[in-house]
Amino acid sequence: MNNKRQSQQKNRTIVSLGIILASLGLAYAPVPGLQQTVVIVSGSELQEPLKQLEVQFERENPNIKLELKFQGSQEIVNKFIDNENDFTPTILIPANGEKLTELSTRYQASNSDEPFYEKPLPIAKTMLVGIAWQERGKVLFPDGRFRWDRVEKAMQSVKWSGIGGASDWGSFDFVTTNPTRSNSGQLTMSLWTQSKVGGNLNSSSFNNSAVESLFGLVKRSVYQPPRSTDILLEEFIAKGANDADVATVYESIALHRWEQATKTQGKPYQIYYLNPTIETISTAAIVKRNVDQGTANAGQKFLNFLTQPQQQAIFVQYGFRPANNSVDLKTVPNSPWNQNIPGAEIIPTGDKLPPPNTDIFGEIQRLWERVN
């Protein structure tokens, strides 16, 4: 009898433990029907840090699932306006906030409501820089300063031998992204045009035969320009000198991928800060179209997460400058600014300009498409 009673008590204990464990599981597991899916469309320059932060955020927020998509910054705007995505975006993060201004203007031209739930939020900063394989950079920029006229002269010469390089270096190969799809390509042509005409840019700056000739030269020289900056740098490193000599990219990925260049090509590239350069701030906005309030709230939780110091430090590790000014570049563990990368500077000496306005971006795209 005692054995029977002990067996019954043991069974009741097991059942009770099972109920407790099941209850705990329900408490901490995502509840079916309550999980929110947040679709983030970002410029490719943020791909690696966002993938790392996605894992951490989902672990801390099991009822929110993130889906990351990556496009060129101009593509983000165009595909949203033209409704060409085969998914419903929740958050857009182009490489600079001016792209969201452009999107808002174009959206409101045919819609009466605002496109975003809240004011766009800065996520991380970077700037346009030049890179070159060190031996070739010393020939092209003998004073150590990036100069647009030297790049143009090299493109006109076609061969390195025409500007003092070794004859076996072959053709001079400059690389930039497609200005009709990518922010960095637009910034490149903006700064190059400004250098060409002198002074500030306006729409009439592009009604200039010298500028039109410049665009034609670059378009002919840059065969099949990549659609995004990260793709450009991966190709630049893989091809090496003789197929890719000089490029314009974001400081962030130039810092992040320099070690890859050393391993792949046996040497790093040199970073050149442009003067002036353009600071570009990856900026996020939660869109209203087909996004309910619950999903928008989940999206806002993710954006708040990204701007906290711990997450901002992750962006620094990938070469970005923080949007949160409480984060110090030098004290972040594994900061690229502590790794003696050739040419890297914590405080560049040149001037930093804001991105061009929407009208300038439009003129750059139109002229690029028009010239041969």
UniProtKB/TrEMBL annotation:
One of its GO terms (molecular function) is molybdate ion binding. It comes from the Bacteria. InterPro entries: ModA/WtpA. GO terms for biological process: molybdate ion transport. The chain crosses the membrane at residues 12-31. The keyword Transmembrane applies. Pfam families: SBP_bac_11 (PF13531). Keywords: Membrane, Transmembrane, Transmembrane helix. SUPFAM superfamilies: Periplasmic binding protein-like II. The keyword Transmembrane applies. This is Substrate-binding domain-containing protein. The lineage of its organism: Bacteria, Bacillati, Cyanobacteriota, Cyanophyceae, Oscillatoriophycideae.
